[in-house]
Amino acid sequence: MAPASKANKKAALDAASWMFNIVTSVGIILVNKALMATHGFSFATTLTGLHFATTTLMTLVLRWLGYIQPTQLPLSELVKFVIFANLSIVGMNVSLMWNSVGFYQIAKLCMIPVSCLLEVILDKVRYSRDTKLSIVVVLIGVAVCTVTDVSVNARGLLAATIAVWSTSLQQYYVHFLQKKYALGSFSLLGHTAPAQAMSLLLLGPFLDYWLTNKRVDAFDYNVTAVFFIILSCTIAIGTNLSQFICIGRFTAVSFQVLGHMKTILVLVLGFIFFGKEGLNLHVVLGMLLAVLGMVWYGNASSKPGGKERKSFSLPTDSKAQKHGLLPDSKELEEKV
């Protein structure tokens, strides 16, 4: 295949991966907002456990159909990933409960510099001046359109710190494990989703009761609420998969920076479907600034020297390459 045609195919797959992630992420946010705000299902951790249980069923079906080949992931690596991932979920839920919405948004924005720091320290990545400036523009734009009231307390700061670092580590680890062990997104999900589902479904009811003082088993599971739960779990399959695909194809930093497009879309769709309260000139200007920064980041980071790894390469699992497991996973991702 000619170099130009390979580049065009890669660009098309990259764009499709981002679109897949944006559509599923925005969709699940809107569905969960309706489920929790309208129907009162406030059990976020348990719901996330159901998401991973549904994702596990998807990976089992694909493995039975032969689309996912057997792969190996050391137990120690799996345990570390699950700890980071579950701390991220619990930390974000607790941070939202203990902090103001404004400080919660600031904490989410802090994931970008923390992810950059992890890449600089662990992967020896260097960023050009334009790439750094574009990230700053994205941070300012998103902050302008999302951060309102800001108040913080000691326990809220602790929860936010745990959430930021665990989320950044979990997203870094997705990219790290895929490269080190030559795992495709489906294969990695096949290893991590069952462990997360089991741990979150065991922990979720107790944590949700602590956060909401409500029992998940006492909820009124009417037809409409069950429909939204099933819809949320179905969309979550795409959300979980698209996150792994995007981070695997790019990096955690790129996923965080360009991922704030989802924040902008959620705001716009929220104004459209749930009312225009809060929509004013500075919010619109913040959105435009954030989008400008994302476009600038995409151009700056793709240029030679914009973002490059120095004297470091992740080892790959020779057994996985020998048995041709990676190409199968990549081929399935391209079909998706």
TrEMBL record:
<feature type="transmembrane region" description="Helical">
    <location>
        <begin position="223"/>
        <end position="241"/>
    </location>
</feature>
<feature type="transmembrane region" description="Helical">
    <location>
        <begin position="43"/>
        <end position="66"/>
    </location>
</feature>
<protein>
    <recommendedName>
        <fullName>Sugar phosphate transporter domain-containing protein</fullName>
    </recommendedName>
</protein>
<dbReference type="GO" id="GO:0016020">
    <property type="term" value="C:membrane"/>
</dbReference>
<dbReference type="Pfam" id="PF03151">
    <property type="entry name" value="TPT"/>
</dbReference>
<feature type="transmembrane region" description="Helical">
    <location>
        <begin position="12"/>
        <end position="31"/>
    </location>
</feature>
<feature type="transmembrane region" description="Helical">
    <location>
        <begin position="253"/>
        <end position="275"/>
    </location>
</feature>
<keyword id="KW-0472">Membrane</keyword>
<feature type="transmembrane region" description="Helical">
    <location>
        <begin position="281"/>
        <end position="300"/>
    </location>
</feature>
<dbReference type="InterPro" id="IPR004853">
    <property type="entry name" value="Sugar_P_trans_dom"/>
</dbReference>
<feature type="transmembrane region" description="Helical">
    <location>
        <begin position="78"/>
        <end position="96"/>
    </location>
</feature>
<keyword id="KW-0812">Transmembrane</keyword>
<keyword id="KW-1133">Transmembrane helix</keyword>
<feature type="domain" description="Sugar phosphate transporter">
    <location>
        <begin position="24"/>
        <end position="297"/>
    </location>
</feature>
<feature type="transmembrane region" description="Helical">
    <location>
        <begin position="133"/>
        <end position="150"/>
    </location>
</feature>
<feature type="transmembrane region" description="Helical">
    <location>
        <begin position="156"/>
        <end position="174"/>
    </location>
</feature>
<dbReference type="InterPro" id="IPR050186">
    <property type="entry name" value="TPT_transporter"/>
</dbReference>
<feature type="region of interest" description="Disordered">
    <location>
        <begin position="302"/>
        <end position="336"/>
    </location>
</feature>
<feature type="transmembrane region" description="Helical">
    <location>
        <begin position="181"/>
        <end position="203"/>
    </location>
</feature>
